Amino acid sequence: MRRILAVIPVATVLLAWLALAATTLAASPTPPPAAGDPRSSGQGPGLVGDPLFALLAVVGIGVLSVVATLVYVRLTAGRSA
Q1: CB distance 20 to 11 below 8 Å
Q2: Pick the residue with more confidence: 11 or 79?
Q3: Which of 14, 16, 75, 81 is the most exposed place for a label (fewest CB within 10 A)?
Q4: Shortest CA distance to 48 belongs to which of 37, 33, 64, 61?
Q5: Which pTM does this prediction carry?
């Protein structure tokens, strides 16, 4: 009998919690209609930014790393045991 009396408050709280639960609105699972690429005026994907600058930056970093490696090898060449 005590066990049933202990379950009553828990069941009451759970039922009140479910009764007072609010509806939660979320985004629609249906995707919006395709409006094209937002980066251009409806033409589709294109190049964004300056690709020539990006290419020169990558080549510059590569050349700089080769030069730094050669300088390091040249400066530490006489230290072999």
Answers
A1: no
A2: 11
A3: 81
A4: 37
A5: 0.41
What is the residue whose two structure tokens read 């730094």? 68
Exposure on the CB side of residue 32, measured as CA atoms within 13 A: 3
Residue 43 carries which DSSP code?
Answer: S
Tokens 């609010």 -> residue: 22
User: Given its phi and psi angles, is residue 49 left (phi above 0), alpha (psi -120 to 50 degrees) or beta?
Assistant: left
Q: Are the C-beta atoms of 40 and 31 separated by less than 8 Å?
A: no
DSSP H helical segments within the chain, as ranges? 2-19, 51-75
19/16 Cα distance (integer angstroms): 5
